[in-house]
User: Which sequence fits this backbone?
């Protein structure tokens, strides 16, 4: 049979080494397996051989896997261009910088290529990985294993094929669907299918995966501890729930077809019991300080909340066994030997609920949600906040313990005593900038120097006060075993709540939101009105996602699928009438009561010493001499806020200290025009909602039409003609 291929003029794809991918609690599952290059079909007649080929899929396809990192077009909580297009970080990423107009032809910059990627190794791109998955599926199906063994392995392989297509469809809409192992020879390319056809294909793979994995995993999960982290039937059902909501969301459902929401809600209602049967559920964290909630992100034992996860270790040396996570190092302040830390935007700090669960008065992005009667303390924004606030952010005066002793020359504390003091002062030469948002050249205490940030992100940290260390400090947190949880049970409940709201069951949505808040210490109505209409319930769900899933890589996808940059009001040139948002009242932002993100800015908080007007060098202090408070003023700082103790009195003590010595200021976060001084504001262009194909991707399959709104490299830059929202066929 003559087989079509996805790429022309590409290189041959060998079957890569079967490497570790998943991992058990032991390191054995993380070790590099023996070479399976150019394996024969006979390898699939042996269970260990077939599973080694399956493990190779984990390494290539798993989020943050040993061979996948950075190629799937997904955010893992960091401050990349995707996250910098959301409330989570300041600093205009390429997608929202107004001076950019990204296009494949005659644009400023080019889109990321999440479709093809590297020419010299096609497994670096999604379709190379799909080819590998198809090879494993074919090999197992045609092999001589017992049926139960086949299904156990096939279910996992089908999940990874669905995952690969999900990563494509969420960016491009319709893409070519391939189920065969294609030979790297010249020939006609496979055309793009419609989005509807792609979703149906993915749903089918996930249904089959769940059915095949039920026998092995639906009795509390994998029974062998060494299999912990492998795909369960629950993972397949959870991913399908996420995808059903994507299909029902405005990005793909411009007319708001209610049937899609009904199907998503009914499916997820039924699937929840099956997900539970696989051993998944909420981690108990019912105390006011949310310690259990914080610990769930770093647990290295069997974690019921982790449904789809990637496991790491603390090994060093040999790259075949060293699988370290980079998050802990990246978020730790520079005076701990960390990477310098990540700073949340002022907007992100402001949007977290007050301690009664309601929106702060300072945050006005949701018109229909209740505003808290608790005053927002502009001098101490950390006062009286949601319990999760203190596990998501760190601020000056907060303990953030760790195991180890930093090498910084001017830092006096051990890791076990570490309190973050990250206030700033300014050089005399910058006196004129002290009260300007453009202030620069600040200095910080305890060896932070110019690296002091007002707030730090501490979500998913391995805090020595809250959990056992799963990192080796000798390399400055680089050898970390903190897992990455791509799908957790809380998201499953939020997905169910969203489907319930969309299907017209706001009371069911509210029930799930309260369930999430109760487990971090809320009582009563948990700050959520039970008499919500459909729109308000949906807004409440999206708001809760911003809080519960902060810095877990979900917000950019949420903003795209709900078209929250402009509400879908802006039209793509050349797009058909079916692209107009005819449901949702014609504008998703207006319907939700959400202030559209286009036109906004994100700034940064800093805490400045009030001693001597916030100056340092002018009174004899330079970067290494100390700080105006402790060294010149002889001022004793209070003990760090310890989340193991009663929180309220400690915060009051810290507030009193701030009142005497520190001032909360706002400084520029997003960029501005250097010549005019005019602030740039966010601009996400309407053709970005569906990504265009790069010239390289089109060149490798000259039968691939370009997406509407993007220049077609195969037609001298003429407008693209492929409609991902068309109902059938090649959709051109």
Assistant:
């Amino acid at each position: 049979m003559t087989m079509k291929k996805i790429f022309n003029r590409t290189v041959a794809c060998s079957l890569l080494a079967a490497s570790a991918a998943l991992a058990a609690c032991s390191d054995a599952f993380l070790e590099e397996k023996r070479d399976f290059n150019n394996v024969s079909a006979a390898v699939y007649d042996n269970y260990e051989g077939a599973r080694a080929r399956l493990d190779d899929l984990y390494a290539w396809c798993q989020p943050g896997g040993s061979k996948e990192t950075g190629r799937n077009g997904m955010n893992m909580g960091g401050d990349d261009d995707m996250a910098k297009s959301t409330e989570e970080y300041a600093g205009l990423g390429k997608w929202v910088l107004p001076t950019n107009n990204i296009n494949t032809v005659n644009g400023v910059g080019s889109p990321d290529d999440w479709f093809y990627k590297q020419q010299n190794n096609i497994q670096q791109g999604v379709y190379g990985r799909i080819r590998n998955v198809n090879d494993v599926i074919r090999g197992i199906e045609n092999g001589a294993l017992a049926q139960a063994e086949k299904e156990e392995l096939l279910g996992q392989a089908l999940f990874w094929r669905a995952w690969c297509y999900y990563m494509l469809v969420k960016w491009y809409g319709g893409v070519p669907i391939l189920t065969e192992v294609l030979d790297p020879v010249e020939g006609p390319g496979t055309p793009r299918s419609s989005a509807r056809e792609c979703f149906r294909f993915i749903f089918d793979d996930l249904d089959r995966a769940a059915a095949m994995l039920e026998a092995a995993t639906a009795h509390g999960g994998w029974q062998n501890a060494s299999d912990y982290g492998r795909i369960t039937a629950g993972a397949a059902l959870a991913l399908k729930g996420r995808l059903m909501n994507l299909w029902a969301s405005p990005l793909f459902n411009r007319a708001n077809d209610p049937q899609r929401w009904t199907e998503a809600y009914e499916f997820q209602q039924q699937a929840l019991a099956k997900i539970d049967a696989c051993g998944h559920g909420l981690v108990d964290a019912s105390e006011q300080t949310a310690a259990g909630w914080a610990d769930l992100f770093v647990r290295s034992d069997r974690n019921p909340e982790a449904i789809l996860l990637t496991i790491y270790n603390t090994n060093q040396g040999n790259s075949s066994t060293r699988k370290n996570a980079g998050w802990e190092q990246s978020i730790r302040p520079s005076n701990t030997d960390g990477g310098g830390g990540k700073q949340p935007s002022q907007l992100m700090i402001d949007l977290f609920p007050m301690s009664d669960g309601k929106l702060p008065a300072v945050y006005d992005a949701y018109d229909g949600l209740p505003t808290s009667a608790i005053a927002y303390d502009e001098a101490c924004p950390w006062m009286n906040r949601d319990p999760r606030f203190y596990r998501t952010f760190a601020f000056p005066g907060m303990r953030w313990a760790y195991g180890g002793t930093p090498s910084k020359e001017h830092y006096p504390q051990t890791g076990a005593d570490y309190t973050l003091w990250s206030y700033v002062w300014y050089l005399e030469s910058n006196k004129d900038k002290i009260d300007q948002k453009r202030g620069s050249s600040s200095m910080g205490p305890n060896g932070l120097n110019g690296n002091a940030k007002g707030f730090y992100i501490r979500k998913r940290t391995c805090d020595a006060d809250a959990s056992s260390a799963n990192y080796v400090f000798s390399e400055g947190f680089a050898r970390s075993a903190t897992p990455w949880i791509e799908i957790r049970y809380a998201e499953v409940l939020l997905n169910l709540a969203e489907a319930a709201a969309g299907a017209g069951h706001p009371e069911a949505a509210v029930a799930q939101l309260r369930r999430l808040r109760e487990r971090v210490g809320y009582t009563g109505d948990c700050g959520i009105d039970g008499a919500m209409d459909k729109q308000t319930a949906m807004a409440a769900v999206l708001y809760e996602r911003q809080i519960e899933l902060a810095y877990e890589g979900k917000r950019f996808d949420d903003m795209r699928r709900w078209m929250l940059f402009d509400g879908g009001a802006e039209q793509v040139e050349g797009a058909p009438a079916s692209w107009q948002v005819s449901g949702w009242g014609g504008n998703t932002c207006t319907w939700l009561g959400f202030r559209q993100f286009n036109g906004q800015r994100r700034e940064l908080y800093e805490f400045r010493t009030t001693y001597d007007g916030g100056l340092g060098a002018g009174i004899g202090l330079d970067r290494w001499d100390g700080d105006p408070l402790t060294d010149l003023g002889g001022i004793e700082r209070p003990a760090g806020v310890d989340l193991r103790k009663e929180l309220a009195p400690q915060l009051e003590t810290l507030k009193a200290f701030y009142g005497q010595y520190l001032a909360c200021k706002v400084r520029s976060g997003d960029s501005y025009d250097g010549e005019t001084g005019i602030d740039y504001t966010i601009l996400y262009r309407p053709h970005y909602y569906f990504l265009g194909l790069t010239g390289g991707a089109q060149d490798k399959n000259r039968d691939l039409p370009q997406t509407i709104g993007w220049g077609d490299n195969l037609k001298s830059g003429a407008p693209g003609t492929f409609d991902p929202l068309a109902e059938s066929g090649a959709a051109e």
